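User: Hi! I'm working on a homework problem where we have to compare a predicted structure to a textbook description. Could you give me the structure for the chain below?
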Amino acid sequence: MSWLWIALLVLMWQPLEPVTLSLLTYNLHMEKIEVDPIIAVIREADADVVALQEMHYENISAFDTAFDLEYPYRTTVEYGDRNTQMLMSRYPVRGARRWPANETQMLRAEIDVNGTTIVIYNVHPTSPGNTGMDTSARSRELDVILEAAAEETAPLVLLGDFNMQEWSEDYARVTSQYVDAFRTLYSMDEDAGFTYPDYSTSQARKKARLPAFTPLVLRLDYIFHSADWQPIRVQVWPDSGGSDHRPVYAQLQLMPG
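Assistant: Happy to help. Predicted structure tokens:
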């Protein structure tokens, strides 16, 4: 009889599926009128978690309506001057808050992926373009973000518009602790991964910082992760939806612990 039970248990046992999570980071350029193309890009990407930066606060209700079914878990943080960050998720969101509570633009949240806790940082440090190309404000904010991240014990993903390039000291500091998902799969020669500026639409050229003819030439938007993850797919989305930033998409798989 014991052998029969063992045989039944073997037949019933199914290996656990690894946790896989898809994410999209997207700077919306404070667009408040032409939002339908932005919504279409998010729907096409079909990510499990969407991190939005520079979302105009007047569009919160429009996004709540548009994504009520696809992303039942949504949270926002406002930073003044109508600037909002939003996190949308297919999985339950716990403990979402602006963290730490200072001028640093970072929305921290915990996502419950079928019983596994994942920590998400939606970040948007100060652009040197707002400080006369002085990077010290960005560096100070990244200090705060990295100090907070160092305290995390769950698998972590940091994504957003980091306002830094790969040759910067700040990029080196981040990648000394966390993995650049895009660069794991593509070398610079294979794909530069540029996300800015996309001036292909008239709304993207509003208050443009560079000449309107400027091609995609900067990489500002990133998805970083802790060593718990393995990137499966990463890409710069081919359509900006009218923003001056291209979104970045990644599919990550949690490695067996």
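For your comparison, note the following. The longest strand covers residues 20-27. The first helix runs from residue 2 to 12. Good luck with the assignment!
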